[in-house]
## 1
Amino acid sequence: MLGALIRLLPEQDIEGHLLDDEGEHVIDLVRKHAVVYIRPALEVVGVLLLWWIALFGPIQLGWLFLLGGLGLAAHALFLTLREHRDVFVITNMRVFRASGVFTVRVATMPITRILDITVEKPVIGRVLGYGHFIFESAAQAQGLRDIRFIGDPDGRDLIIQRVVQRAGLRGPRSGVGGQMDGR
C-alpha cells in the first residue's frame, strides 16, 4: 500500500534534461532504497499518536495535539517528497542527479570525467541491499560526489563501468585468454 501511495507522488522531469538531438538515452534511473522512507513512516505513527491523544486526552489541549499532528504530517510528506524526487540517472553520455521538492537542482558529470567510484556498503546496507557511491573526478568541488542509499550498489557500479568501457575510456577490451583483441 505504501508503494502505491509513493507512486502517486510527482516525478522529476528526467526526459527534459536529456540531449535527445545528441542521441543521449537513459540506461538506468536509480531511485533511493526504501530504507529512506522509515523516518517519514515513523513520523506518521507519531501523527496518529498525537491525533489519538487529541481525541481521548485532555479536551482543553486537543487543539494543540491536532496542530502538532498536522505539522508532523506536513514534515513527513516533505521528507517523502524529498527522497522520492532525488534520482540518480546513468545515460550513455553522463551521470546526473536531479533533486529537490520546491527548487530543482541538477548536478551533471560527463562519463569522461569519472576517475574513480567508491562503493560503500555499511553492515545494515549489506543486509538490506543498499550502499553509497562516492565519485572522484578532476573537479573535486562538484555537486555529484556523494550519492547515498542506492539499491543494488554493485550492480549499479557495473552498469557505470560498462558505460565507461563502451565509451572507450578504459582502454581496449581483452579477448579470450586475457589477450588483447586483434593481436
## 2
Amino acid sequence: MSAQLGSEELDVGEALERDGFCGPLDAGASREKCTELARSICEGIENREMHPLYGRFSVRDWHLINSDFLELLTGPKVLDAVSLVLGDRYKMWRSKIFHKSPGEGPLGWHQEWGAFNGEEIGNDRPALIPAPARRDSAWNVTVWMPLTDVTPDMGPMRFARGSHKRRFPIRMGPLAETEFYVDPFTEVTSKDALIRRVKTDSLCIDIHTAHYFDDVSLDALSFEELRELVEAKLREEQGAITLDFHESEHEIVSMPMSAGQFVIFTERCMHGSSANTSAFPRIGINARFTFDDTQVYPFRHSKVPIDGSNLDISLHRTVLIPGWEDASDGASITLADLKAG
C-alpha cells in the first residue's frame, strides 16, 4: 500500500510492517496554526488548566474540546496515511500533549502492546479490546506531530527499528525507576504551588495525588518538609520497567522533525526520546487510531468509569472517521459532526 505523502511516494503499510514506524511525513499543516497551538499549550501547561471533560488537569483528548487540535490531527494527509494501515473504517480514540521542558531528561524505551491499560503507572484497566480476529496483530497506530521544530538537541523521538516484532517483558517497580518518570519538582519552587498541584492531581501526569495531604497539617510544615513527604509518597507508587531491551542490539533511529510533519507508528515498536538539552520546550501532540470493531473503554458506562490513567472517562467519545457514519452507540461522534461543533 502506498500513498502520495509530501513529495515522495512512501509505502506506509510496508514500512510499519518492516520497521514499526514511518516518517517524517508531510502533514501539509500550517506553521502558523502549529505555532498558535503551541503557545496555547504552553499557557495551559503552566497554569495547569482543568480539562472540561475530566474535571482535573490532563494532557489527554483536547481534540474533543479544541478545534485546532482536531484539525491538525485529522488533516487529509494524516488520514490518508492512517487509512493505508487501518482501512476505510476506523476511529480516533485518544490524543495527548507532549511538553518536554528545557533541561528535561530522556523518556526511556517502552512499548505498548495495545491494551493501554495503565501498566506504566501500576494499573490494569484495558482501554482497548480488539476483535478476536485481530488479536495477533497490532490494532492501534499512533500519529505524533511536533508543533515546534525539533532539532537534535531538543529530545526528538527515537525508534528501535523492527522491535515491534517482539514483546519485551516488564516488571513492576518504584515509579521513579521507570522509563516514564519525569521529575515533577523542577518547576515547583513554592509551598503554595506544591500544595495546589498535589491537591488538584496536577503534579505528575496520570498520578492520583489529591489524597497525599489527607490528615497532614499543612501550616505546620515547610516547603522542604512537604516536598519530602510527597517524594516519599511517590516512592510508594509503582510503574512498569522494561526488561531485556538493549539499545546496542538494535538500529536506533532518531527523528528530528519540522513543525507540522508527523511520524506514524505502532506502539509495539520500542520508542522514547532523548533529553532536551536546548533552551526551548519541545511541544508535540499525538493521536491514536484503532479499527472500527475495537471496543474502546468497555467499562465507560460501569459504576467505576475510571481508566488506567486515573481519569473519569464517562464523558469521553471516540471520533468516527469519514466513510463510517454510524454513531449510534452513544459513545462516538462522526468527524464531520465534531468539526461542525
